[in-house]
Write a structure and sequence with these properties.
Order of helices and strands: HEEEHEEHEEEEEEEEEEE
Low-confidence stretches: 3-17
Radius of gyration: 21 Å
Number of domains: 2
Helix content: under 10%
Largest sheet: 4 strands, antiparallel
Mean pLDDT: 91
CATH architecture of the largest domain: Sandwich
CATH superfamily of the largest domain: Immunoglobulins
Shape: globular
CATH class of the largest domain: Mainly Beta
Length: 326
């Protein structure tokens, strides 16, 4: 979650019946909705030494504030438990000072950038040594590279931190911890269709956020310039039904017991919805709209909708559509 929204979210959580706040799903101004890391040429969210990683920020700017500037920075992990400046809540209160601080490295500007994984071999050595001494740590054999995203538009600023996992490869080959940590890939949101009620099968719904890689995906609707099916968004209240690509699912990952015994778990996929207008009537109070099937009341005028898919292990992906007015 963007740092600048943490305090507001906490206040909302303490007062779920307070309708004086806009719902979390309603995007009224500049906001960073998600940040994805992806190894070039793959779906991998985790990276290794030598990889080129594409970092992408999903930044909403519904008021068109200008100029929009998106900056990226990082703090190199050292393999210890010391809190790096990029994760220090006090340091994050003064972002301009933080960006100029020693040890904070500028990565570039733009909504998407490509960076080379920094040299962290010494940090890996310390991480591996701890895992060999404490078998329970083998299932968490990764470093977190804290990536800072700063979006400025007009007088508004939003800040978010993405923790990119860096995993050892040849550094642990042939050792006891090898294979204990299962590397993670980004999930793939496949379709969002709108059905009248939950009793109607998802596949029979109108393709409201569906990539049109092939003609059959759109069910006769044209393919829009954004790469999504250009089917009209139905009026009134209905159910949005989201589905992920099962072919992109990761194998089970492990958690380690104190003696190193590995227990397998399947990752969970979580959907989060955002709009510039309209209403998710199920989600009152804080208004954090989540789930793979949600009621939505579409507005008559134009609006933008985003749905973000997260796997709980750092993988993220999303679909976005600008819906014209009727």
């Amino acid at each position: 979650m963007p740092f600048s929204r943490l305090a507001a979210a906490a206040a909302l959580a303490l007062s779920a019946c307070n309708t004086g706040f806009p719902p979390q799903y309603l995007v009224a101004d500049l906001r960073i909705l998600a940040v994805r890391s992806q190894v070039a040429g793959s779906l991998a969210a985790d990276a290794r030494l030598g990889d080129t990683v594409r970092l992408t920020a999903l930044v909403a700017n519904p008021l068109g504030r200008a100029p929009l500037r998106i900056r990226w920075a990082t703090c190199i992990p050292d393999g210890t438990e010391a809190l790096p400046p990029c994760l220090d809540p006090e340091a994050l209160r003064d972002v301009d000072r933080l960006l100029a601080a020693p040890g904070v490295i500028a990565l570039g500007e733009g909504s998407a950038i490509e960076v080379q994984v920094p040299e962290v071999a010494g940090a890996f050595d310390r991480l591996i040594a701890r895992a060999e001494a404490e078998p329970a740590l083998a299932c968490r054999l990764y470093l977190e590279l804290p990536v800072l995203v700063v979006a400025d538009a007009g007088a508004e600023r939003e800040v978010a931190v993405k923790r990119v996992r860096l995993t050892p490869g040849s550094e642990i080959a042939g050792t006891d911890p090898a294979g204990a940590y299962v590397t993670n890939s980004n999930p793939v949101p496949l379709t969002v269709r709108r059905v009248p009620t939950e009793d109607v099968p998802c596949g029979e719904g109108v393709p409201v956020l569906v990539p049109c890689q092939d003609a059959s995906a759109c069910g006769g609707a044209a393919c829009g310039g954004d790469g999504l099916c250009a089917a009209s968004f139905p009026e009134g209240r209905g159910v949005l039904c989201a589905r992920a690509d099962p072919g992109a699912a990761d194998p089970p990952y492990y958690q380690c017991a104190p003696d190193g015994t590995r227990m397998g778990f399947f990752e969970s996929l979580d959907w989060q919805w955002y709009v510039t207008a309209g209403r998710f009537p199920e989600f009152t109070g804080v208004g954090n709209a989540t789930g793979d099937a949600v009621e939505f009341e579409a507005p008559a005028g134009p609006f933008t909708m985003w749905v973000v898919l997260r796997d709980g292990r750092g993988g993220e992906a999303w679909l976005e559509r600008q819906v014209p007015g009727r």
